[in-house]
Amino acid sequence: MKFLLNSTVIEIIQGDITQSEVACIVNAANTSLLGGGGVDGAIHRAGGKQILDECIRIRNAQGNCPTGEAVITTGGKLKAKYVIHTVGPVWNDGKNNEREKLSNCYRNTLNLAVEKGIKSIAFPNISTGIYGYPKDKAAEVALKTVVEFVEKNETIERIQFVCFDRENYDIYLGGG
Ligand code: AR6
């Protein structure tokens, strides 16, 4: 599904984000930036060692990446030139500012993308796997934050939401 919001094309697709044909894909990382399972593992596997090398360099320079923040590396062997790594919140019954932290992930990632002149970007469904954020609630935060951003900022031409599982895809098609 595809629609136009101001001058930005928003695409909702089901698939594997490592195959996305965009300038930048987003990784649902952890604070160590050193890789893990889920989409993080898939991105590091597909993109190769260069991504991890840059993550290590960033971590050595500035320490762990706090929840809600974002850092950028090369895309290595991926089709995407860049990967932005952001750290989603672990779901804890919603009592730990999870909503704000998840919203920060999307907003900080988009701000960093604009700073780097990135025109197309693909997001996974951050926090909805290992970190246990309820999928419907996470989709609502993701869509709302991205829509608010696009309403104020027209520099990104294309934003994809890449849903790996059917459940997330259906939720996104329903508008979160
Ligand atoms: N393409 C797109 N989405 C994917 C892919 C893929 N190839 N693989 C999984 N997903 P998760 P989190 C979806 O667990 O919940 C890691 O160990 C998946 O179906 O990857 O933010 C990190 O290092 C789900 O909808 O990330 C952290 O420790 C979504 O990606 C921790 O997991 C996010 O699931 C982060 O947990």
In short:
With 176 residues, this protein is of the alpha/beta class.
Bound molecules: ligand AR6
> In terms of per-residue confidence, which ranges show pLDDT below 50 for 5 or more consecutive residues?
none
Q: What proportion of the residues form beta strands (DSSP E)?
A: 15-25%
Q: Indicate the CATH class.
A: Alpha Beta
Question: Shape, please?
Answer: globular
Largest sheet report: 7 strands, mixed
Strand order of the largest sheet: 1-2-7-6-3-5-4
How many DSSP-defined strands?
7
| Helix-strand topology string | EEEHHEEHEHEH
Organism: Cohnella phaseoli
Pfam families: Macro
Protein name: O-acetyl-ADP-ribose deacetylase (Regulator of RNase III)
InterPro entries: Macro_dom, Macro_dom-like
Question: What can you tell me about this protein's structure?
Answer:
With 176 residues, the chain is α/β, with parallel strands linked by helices. It has a single domain, classed as Leucine Aminopeptidase, subunit E, domain 1. The protein contains 5 helices and 7 strands. It has a 7-stranded mixed β-sheet with strand order 1-2-7-6-3-5-4, with helices on both faces. The protein is globular and about 40 Å long. The site of ligand AR6 has 25 residues, from strand 3 and helix 1.
